Every structure is written in structure tokens, then in C-alpha cells.
Amino acid sequence: LKASNSGVLDQFGYSGSVSGDTVVVGAYWExxxxxxxxxNQADTAPSAGAAYVFAGVGAASFSPLEQWRQFxxxxxxxxxxxxxxxxxxxxxxxxxxxxxxxxxxxxxxxHQPALVQNGSxxxxxxxxxxxxxxxxxxxxxxxxxxxxAGSWQTIWVTPxxxxxxxxxxxxxxxxxxxxxxxxxxxxxxxx
Length: 191
Known about the structure:
The protein is mainly β. The protein has helices spanning 64-73, 95-101, 130-134; strands at 12-19, 22-27, 50-55, 114-118, 121-129, 138-144, 158-165, 168-176, 183-189. The protein is elongated.
């Protein structure tokens, strides 16, 4: 997005908001004296500020993952699919996993997946974003007794949603303990 009358030091993008397919962008130091929609932008009033409204560029134009990137990073281009593997905040979760877990990519996570033994089984709990899930992000709990390639399986894994708070669900997958060791992992696949 670009201002129709861009100028040096206008600070276009100082603030902004997205609603559906409409984006509003503030320019804190814009010099226009225009007071209404589509007024004369040639009239000047030093550092008066302005708000630019762009229709038809929001949700209808972006995938849910691109919308998340736009909201968290301010752009879809600079944080596209190549950035999905980047860990912006250094907390051990790459951007794609931050989106999938409903976390903020610029703040270290305060939650971790949890594994506890409960009777004769293991319970693996993790968080998932409803927006990411509804957009087709895959969440699969797998187990292995050896960690060998090709040994991961989903048989006997029973996932269930245990809570929903806003856009984030907590899911608990139960796996029988069985004989020997059990290694569990959460596989997240992009939409």
C-alpha cells in the first residue's frame, strides 16, 4: 500500500488497522489540509496528519497465514513463506509454529507442549490456533518406540479438544504407554 500523495517524513504506516477487506493506514506527519474523504490533497497544513482508506485489499486478498503475517510483521512480502522457518524472537518456535500455536512471533512463548503419564497412557497436550486449523494447518501427534526413520505412527493416538479460549484451543492426545519406550512428537504441516 502506498499513499496517493506520499512525501518525505510523512510517517505513512505509523498506525493502521484491518477490517475485512478494508485497510486504514495513518500518516502521522502528513502535510495535507484536507478534511474530508477525497478532499484536495494539494492544500497544505504542516504535520496535520492523515488517514488513508484502502478498500478491497484485506481478507479477500490474503490467505489466513498471509493475514497473520501482515498483522504481526506489517507485510506479507518480507515475511512470506521463506520466513516461515525463521525464529524472530529466538524462543525455539519458528514463525509457522508460532502461527499454528496462536503465539505472537515477536514475544517468547509462555506455554510449552506438555507430556504426562496418566495411568496406563501418556497425555500429550499442545495449543493450536483455530484460524490456522480452519485454514488447513495439520496437527498430528505421532509416537515411536525407537526414533528410527519410518517408525513414527498414529495408531492408538486419540486427540480431543479440552479447552477453547478465544482463538486458541488446547488439545490433549492420549497414547497407550505399552511396553518399552514411547517417544512422542507433534507434526505441524502448513495449509
